[in-house]
Amino acid sequence: MDRFSKSCVDLNKFKPQKKRRGLFSLFKTRTDTTGAQPSFQKNERPTMFARRNSNFRIPSHVGHKVNWKKSITIVLLIAIPTAWLGLMLYLPFFQINTVTINGLRLLNQSEINNYIHDRYIAHSWWPKNNYFLINANIISSDITSKYAVNKVEIKKIFSHEIQINIEEKITSIIYDNGQNYFLLDGEGTVVKTITLDQETSPASPVLDVTSTTTSQIISPDLITSTTSPQIMATTTLFTATNTHKPAYIKFFGEYYDMPIFYDARELNVHDKQINVLPAELIKSIIEWKQALKENGVGDVNYFTSNNPTAGITAVLSQPWNILVQPTNDMPEQIQNLKTILANPEVKPTEYIDLRFKERVFWK
Q: Taking Cα atoms as reference points, which of 297, 259, 301 lies closest to residue 281?
């Protein structure tokens, strides 16, 4: 009898099959056949050896080889995107280092520039100034909440610059007392004295209310009448008694769109003086300038009054001016003005007086 007998179990069929696999086969689930129970084909009866050795296992080291190709592929799939992302975030080429701010007239450009740099541009461990990470909407919202601006537009210029276009909110006026010009803030406090070459020119047309004026109740019916004593008294508050005229043309540069108010009382005003004008009057002057322009009435050259409680005059680029009452409802006065201007029979040559609510006077 032979010293060694041939086993009835073919161990080769328990070895892993060697197959050529593509790149996408790495993500497929593979069945590990190493160490599996002996399998038999259908209708095949196991031999005595197989029945007695049903717990037979092939050692794990038998036929097992390290798949270096798969391991290297996985490492590359992870390393390449990570390295690419790191370059995009930390490469100096994609870091914002230039900030351009346009549209500032009153706000301090250096202050805003330093604020943007410290908050969004300054270097740290996290590349917050990266071109792809910096959020223009957040910067715009931040500037709007911190400074007095109407609108902020931010444009990112590839690959290291942002451009900030700011439209300032008008919260100040230029106050003219007949001798000097002063910048007043929204509370009526003198911010600074504005130095300009003074000029003297003929005053605006005098509102002579001793002549006949025309009035209209805001209705389809037109009424023509002479001026009543009450209307005469209130309108004469706007009669110019001197030859001073604000040099509004010289403010079209740095102080463009800022209302100019000439106080015909010619009060003495000094630097840092507070409560030169009531805050409500300043707000009304600013709103009236915007409203008249937006409604297509015309640009306001300047406002004037010698008794602000009785009303103010808006000196327009038109041949005629508008008299308004700051304490009355502005939308109602605007609507009355539109009604008057829409009437082809109304052709004012000097002024339109809106101070008396439902009744409008013109000349």
A: 259
